Amino acid sequence: MQRQVHILHGVPASAGIAIGYAVVLDTRKIERYPKIRITSALVEDETKRFHDAVSASKKQIIEAIRELENHNVVKEHAFILETHLMMLSDPALTGRVEQLISEENINAEWALKIALGEIEKDFESIGDEYIKSRVDDTTFVGERLLRNLIGKKMSGFHLLENSVIIAHDLSPTDTAMMNKEKVLGFATDVGGLTSHTSIIAHSLEMPAVVGLKNASSIVSPGDKVIVDGISGLVIVNPSESQVSEYEQRARSYLSLELKLKEKAKSPAITKDGKYVKIKGNLEFKEEVKTVLDHGAEGIGLYRTEFLYLNRNRIPCEEDHFEAYKAVVEAVSPYNTVIRTLDLGGDKFYSSLGELKNEMNPVMGLRAIRLCLREVEIFKVQLRGILRASHYGNTSIMFPMISGMEELLRAKEVLEETKDDLRKQGIPFDENIPVGIMVEVPSAATIADILATEVDFFSIGTNDLIQYALAIDRKNEYVNYLYEPLHPAVLRLIKFTIDAAHNSGIPVSMCGEMAGRVIYTPILLGMGIDTLSTNAFSISHVKEMARKLNIEKCRQLAENLFQIKTAQEIYDFINREIVDKSPDICALL
Ligand code: PEP
Ligand code: MG
To answer: Nearest to residue 382, comparing CAs of 352, 353, 409?
Structure first.
């Protein structure tokens, strides 16, 4: 039978190309499970059945943690799984199931579903007091238990060589369990760049595409599949010529990676001698070594919100201090920009009940707005940052600043915190630089005013583009409009850079745009001082900068503003820069 060719588009979650045979995992939530009333005589047996499922689930998770350790994946990722392990020993879940079995005389599956429903409801009723833990984690643990109870295997990890995993969703445990010798890559229907699954795939350096919507229903077991984690494509049952094209691409990708890794730690100096600083973005303190090994000259964005996730209490001052000190010490003498909490919005599903109910969370109580409302929680973090600044080169950055009042209030809280530390005789860097993310269009358009109050800017294009073009990045119907080269976006960026320089302050970019080499010529041409990107893009951006002539980039940038559409701008960059250099072509 001729297998049908399909090309599926998703989100490139982890770079690289995998060509192999599909193993389709049944990871959809189990909707149908037995609901049975039992006699009192059966309560003991039913409880034992439940305990066996708990033990089996624990064993599977411990195995997954070992897999992660074998691959030297950062501790924080194993910590996600340890949280799952803890849930399996938590009487709030296990005790409640036992109680329901014995008091209501119902079978274990039914009791488990009721107990999980109660816990999820509790999450919903949490006020904005503390972040408990993620609802997703409860769901993953519940699903594992349920599958073990009804004897349905969670995932068939007894794999043949050259497997490509296709699933509706993968839990962090599933991802961690993937045997790197056999699994070449994976693709899922759901998920985004910031989901834990993508983060673990990155750490395992395994090509992955997520958010494909219906891959698990389209792909059949045994289908040949190409997972292109660079451009976010999955090709099902490719033609012979597509396979050889992608084999060639995979070879070029690997040899380029190898070449770039060798040069990663050398500085990026353009052909005409301008040094371009390239920094790294960081989510977990454990990733700092990876980011530095990839050639980062400092941390341009430390996203501290991950400290707040996956724990059953809000981080205390010591948690903050310990995490930041470890990073700052490892990165010094280079600088670390610690961004204050940016929870909320659609990026991380927050357990803060109040946020959950917002009609439009991306425009709601997010980031600095949340911090200025919860000043005490904010001050705990600021104390941690300030104390860490005593141990190395540190800067503070406020996210989502939209106007002057907000900035002044944030600075006021910072000053109050400094005063408290002074009174207590606790040392910190008195001259710690303070900057802001420019990621709200209103901030970009008053960048000249804001520049008088800060020591640096960092342009957050992920949000700036979303807000400037009025498109919800997560909305599949409009995300085709998400366009970094939109003339409006480029004007906002240019105005921000010029405003910073007119006030004598440096300006960096830390959104995804900074890590895409096609944009490097125009960003350097517009005068950006520093680019900060994920570990895996650092060596690419450095290499791109080495191949450019800054003067040519300036001319290119000047001419951009006459052009009317993103597509024409894209064509112009290709014509003027890319097509003229085969070296540059190879990098794209
Ligand atoms: C941005 O908005 O560009 C940014 C870097 O911040 P985040 O992706 O964390 O929202
Ligand atoms: Mg942002």
So the answer is: 409
CA-303 nearest atom, ligand 1 = 9
- 515 CB under 6 A from ligand 1? no
Q: Quote the CA–CA distance of 96 and 74 in Å, as a whole number.
A: 34
> In angstroms, rounded to a whole number, what is the distance separating the alpha carbons of residues 386 and 384?
6
Whether the Cβ atoms of residue 88 and residue 57 lie closer than 8 Å to each other: yes
**Atom of ligand 1 minimally distant from the CA of 463:** 2
In which order are the strands placed within the sheet that holds 17-25? Answer: 6-9, 233-236, 224-228, 17-25, 163-167, 183-188, 208-210, 11-14
Strands 17-25 and 11-14 turn out to be: unpaired
pLDDT, tens digit only, all 588 positions of the chain:
567 888 999 888 888 999 999 988 876 667 777 888 888 888 999 999 999 999 999 998 888 788 777 766 556 567 777 888 888 888 888 999 999 999 999 999 999 989 888 887 776 665 433 334 456 677 788 888 888 888 765 444 446 788 999 988 887 667 767 777 788 999 998 877 656 677 677 767 789 998 898 898 899 888 999 999 988 899 999 999 999 999 999 998 899 888 998 999 999 999 999 999 999 998 888 789 889 999 999 999 999 987 876 555 788 999 999 999 999 999 999 999 999 998 876 444 444 444 555 667 778 888 999 999 999 999 999 999 999 999 999 999 999 999 999 999 999 999 999 999 999 999 999 999 999 999 999 999 999 999 999 999 999 998 999 999 998 766 657 767 889 999 999 999 999 999 999 999 999 999 989 998 999 999 999 999 999 998 888 999 999 999 999 999 999 999 999 999 999 999 999 998 887 777 777 777
6-27+155-237 to CATH, choices 3.60.15.10, 3.50.30.10, 2.40.30.10, 3.30.390.30: 3.50.30.10
CATH architecture under which domain 268-585 falls: Alpha-Beta Barrel (3.20)
Q: How far apart are CA 370 and CA 361, in angstroms?
A: 12
Q: Which residues surround ligand 2, an ion (CB under 5 A)?
A: 439, 460, 463
Enclosing H/E stretch for 198: helix 196-203
- The pTM (predicted TM-score) of the whole model is 0.74
40-150 homologous superfamily? PtsI, HPr-binding domain (1.10.274.10)
d(CA 338, CA 303): 7
Mutational pocket test of ligand 1: of 339, 510, 532, 537, the residue with most ligand atoms within 8 Å of the beta carbon? 510
Where do the structural domains in the chain lie, given as residue ranges?
A: 6-27+155-237, 40-150, 268-585
Question: Which of the residues are catalytic?
Answer: 196, 510
d(CA 116, CA 93): 7
Structure tokens of 378? 């904010």
